[in-house]
User: Which sequence fits this backbone?
């Protein structure tokens, strides 16, 4: 007879780490077991070099605000990031997280566009956002001298006869090392009695008559099989979440499919270049490109070392994880999702064309793309690195962007599908999991949740004074710019 635990977390990424931490704070008596198929946690999308580390708060990402007059989605993303900041600051104050500089640093967020149409759009976006409390401090300029002060590499030797350009800047943006953050949270879970099983791959999920889940797994070292029962299961396994939720047989996963998109970045650690560029600079995406492929030039701080990353350049692999299976994209197909997936392919020809063009890009062409941002870029200063795999959600014949929680009606199991903004809004997403799966416990948990996330259940952007107070307080706790 297998052991029965309260919670099983599948996947050693930032989402499982965040949910496990919340549950450990809310129910310290619960037994938690986490499974990670790799030899370390944070090896897939949470790894610092598998993502851009942007504290996604819609300060610079244009895809969150396609209509310059409608800031609703941008505000919603920013609100969610503020909840993550509040949680992290509370965990720092409780001694659960280390010195904030080990996982977060101030990095201005900028948007840089070229051409009359995009300049007009960016100016209109700026005028809309400057009136929003959570976007206080946003700046706009179409003056090359000002933009040069903000980000010298963008303007050095840029042809004067080139098309019009403009930029916005928010000095209080951040860079986040989600790998370090994930490792620290799992260390805390271990210290609190949770069991974190590395090199253990979950193979099957089966609902038992008593309402618990039988979790079948295999130790990848020695290939020893095992089973454990859990009252609640969270599947935070990146692209593999759909495979496990399908094996669980829950009705709510019907109709879903995922489309994997990989990526590469150009990276440099040349100190002279890093010194000249202290910002995350986003631009407009190419026609047909998914939101995660918006070109950007990012300052990164990982393990105390500064670097720059440019990209991403889309790649294709049928794997749902970097270390996944070549059969992933095929093995997800079911009668209930096949039609939807075929429709996505037929109605997203721009995406197909974009992916083909990206796959045909040589290294020299990728350096040319970099030179559109950095006119003085030299190929020998930059290396290509492989980013993480992203699994875009397909449902109802549409390719959906963002992150989606899928939970069983009885709340006994939940999983996460999708990609960006994901990690940055992890606190809000995990609160959604708690609400969906533990509705009867939420009233008792609310006082503790308010201690961890003071604005839980509230909206900051409607109250300028409170928005400023909260952002100032978390900035002070995290040692970042307000």
Assistant:
């Amino acid at each position: 007879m297998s052991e029965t635990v309260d919670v099983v977390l599948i996947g050693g990424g930032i989402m499982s780490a965040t949910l496990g931490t919340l549950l450990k704070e809310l129910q310290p008596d619960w037994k938690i077991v986490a499974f990670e198929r790799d030899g370390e946690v944070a090896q897939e999308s949470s790894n610092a070099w598998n993502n851009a580390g942007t504290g996604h708060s819609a300060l610079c990402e244009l895809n969150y605000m396609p209509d310059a007059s409608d800031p609703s989605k941008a505000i919603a993303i920013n609100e969610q990031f503020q909840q993550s900041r509040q949680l992290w600051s509370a965990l720092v104050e409780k001694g659960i997280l280390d010195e904030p500089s080990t996982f977060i640093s101030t990095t201005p967020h900028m948007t840089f566009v070229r051409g009359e149409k995009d300049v007009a759009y960016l100016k209109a976006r700026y005028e809309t956002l400057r009136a929003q409390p959570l976007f206080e401090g946003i700046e706009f300029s179409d003056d090359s001298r000002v933009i040069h002060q903000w980000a010298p590499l963008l303007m050095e030797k840029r042809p004067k006869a080139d098309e019009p350009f403009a930029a916005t800047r928010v000095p209080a943006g951040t860079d986040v090392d989600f790998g370090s953050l994930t490792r620290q949270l799992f260390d805390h879970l271990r210290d609190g009695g949770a069991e974190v099983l590395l090199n253990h791959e979950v193979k099957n999920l089966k609902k038992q008559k008593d309402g618990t889940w039988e979790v079948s797994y295999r130790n990848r070292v020695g290939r020893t099989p095992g089973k454990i029962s859990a009252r609640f299961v969270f599947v935070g396994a990146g692209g593999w979440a759909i495979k496990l939720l399908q094996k669980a047989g829950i009705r709510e996963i019907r109709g879903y499919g995922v489309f994997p998109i990989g990526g590469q970045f150009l990276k440099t650690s040349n100190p002279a270049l890093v010194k000249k560029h202290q910002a995350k600079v986003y631009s407009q995406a190419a026609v047909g490109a998914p939101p995660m492929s918006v070109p950007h030039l990012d300052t990164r701080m990982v393990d105390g070392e500064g670097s720059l990353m440019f990209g991403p350049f889309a790649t294709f692999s049928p794997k749902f994880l970097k270390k996944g299976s070549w059969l992933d994209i095929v093995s997800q197909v079911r009668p209930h999702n096949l039609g939807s997936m075929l429709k996505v392919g037929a109605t997203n020809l721009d995406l197909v064309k974009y992916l083909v063009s990206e796959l045909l890009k040589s290294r020299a062409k990728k350096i040319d793309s970099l030179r559109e941002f950095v006119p003085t870029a030299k190929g020998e200063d930059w290396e290509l690195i492989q980013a993480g795999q992203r699994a875009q959600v397909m449902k109802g014949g549409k390719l959906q962007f963002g992150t989606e929680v899928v939970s069983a009606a009885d709340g006994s199991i939940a999983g996460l599908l999708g990609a960006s903004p994901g990690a940055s809004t992890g606190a809000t997403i995990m609160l959604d999991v708690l609400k969906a799966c533990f509705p009867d416990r939420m009233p008792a948990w609310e006082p503790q949740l308010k201690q961890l996330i003071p604005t839980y259940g509230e909206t900051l952007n409607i109250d300028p004074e409170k928005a400023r107070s909260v952002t100032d307080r978390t900035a002070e706790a995290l040692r970042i710019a307000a």
